[in-house]
Amino acid sequence: MKLTKFSKLVNETLDSAKLYNIDEAFNMLMSFKRESFDESVDVAFNLGVDPKHAEENIRLSINLPHGIGKEVSVLAIVNADKEAEAKDAGADFVGRDEFLDKIKAGWTDVDKIVVTPDLMVELGKLGKVLGPKGLMPNPKSGTVTNEVAKAIKEIKAGKLDARVEKNGILQSSIGKTSFSEEQLKENFNTLQSAVISAKPNSFKGKYLKSISVSSTLGPGIKIGTE
Hints:
Radius of gyration: 20 Å
Largest sheet: 4 strands, antiparallel
Shape: globular
Strand content: 15-25%
Number of strands: 9
Structural class: alpha/beta
Helix content: 25-40%
Number of helices: 8
Distance between the termini: 38 Å
């Protein structure tokens, strides 16, 4: 099979067995970027945790220095007295019963949901619809709150929510290939610091096993963990 120009570039540049430092990894990632569209840049941390244990079910909610370069749509489930606050903060959808009914009917065309604590009971009944989509609000991520405006503004500014999957992988977008290398590295360093800080006090063994970074169409580039 004849290699494409891109495949040839990857084969000549990337050593799949090598662990690169952060500067090398992001310099290489940007050399692979496509000019035809703005790719997402994703990082995957392979952790030695078992999410079945509550203390090892790592979940992060942080603000990256440069956001993630994505427009995030927000639904605010609030009572009438909070509607103006939610709209002024930039929520794309605001309401109560009409959206509870829409979700019950299967509507999930939104990226994040913010809800006040008093309405969480009603929203909790819709777990079968929201759970599989990762849309259920959670106090730990700041999406179940009376500070509706603050939560919406943080989400719109690029607040990142990530949690470890059952196989021990925590992955997240950290920006776009239209970002500068420095912006991507700063976002990466912020996320990596949060991952390391989230190590359970009771955990024994190797916590951070491996890290890889990639663009949407690019190969995975391994980064050293030491």
